[in-house]
Amino acid sequence: FYLPGIRLAPKEKMDIPVLFMPDTMKMYEAVVVIHVMRENGENWPYEDSAELNKDLKSSLTVAENGGIQGILWIYPVHGIPEAPPKKLVPAVVRCRARQRVERRVEVLLTGVVPGATAMPAARNSATVNTNKPGNIQEEVQVTDGFFTTVEFLYELQYQSNEIKSQLESLVGMHLVQRERDTESGIVTLIFNIVFAPNKPMRNEATLVVRCTTGGVWKFPMLFIATEPEVDDVINIEAVGLNKESIVGFKLTSQTR
Known about the structure:
Elements: E1 28-36, H1 54-57, E2 60-62, E3 68-79, E4 91-96, E5 101-109, E6 125-129, E7 152-158, H2 161-167, E8 171-180, E9 187-195, E10 201-211, E11 216-226
Parallel strand pairs: 4-11
Antiparallel strand pairs: 1-3, 2-3, 5-6, 5-9, 7-10, 8-9, 10-11
């Protein structure tokens, strides 16, 4: 859209509204261009207009007499749609402290746009398969019936830096499979999650998936570490009333 001449006083501020209402899960690009000219129609004097570098010339409109007639500010805008937030049931990964567990997490992405094909955004969901995975391939390429390859980026986001510092070294995640239903257009991503907690905890995280064609999906996750198994049972046998009984045992530090 175009806004006709708006008068601004010196050092006055102006807000430029930008409205974004996507109907498909793909990135949209636009440019906000601001062209400023003097109110009296005169030019800004500039003696060396012929010597302007290429980048500066693209931001100025130069008059025939060599003066600067207008100044351009160009702001690129990227509109990235995000799947509508819904109250999804978190995918729970549970493990006893000081043990290690692997889980398959399956997420459904709706509205993924392969190339120029557009589909409306619908629902999204996440589930956990409690069966341990078999052989994991490093790279899984699954044909989806389209010539265009759609790539995905993913990460785990945490509610605070403190939770991130606790979980970052305890959780591993790897995309092992991706499929596409040609009829519904729903893309299924299957992740292998490794959780190896060192102490009891209960922390939330968000699995964020981004598509290179545009679009963001978020899925809640919950990591629960229960109490560890008892290391050993120490029995102390009494030698008599009002007499001390002593038993010795060794503790080995896991770190320096």
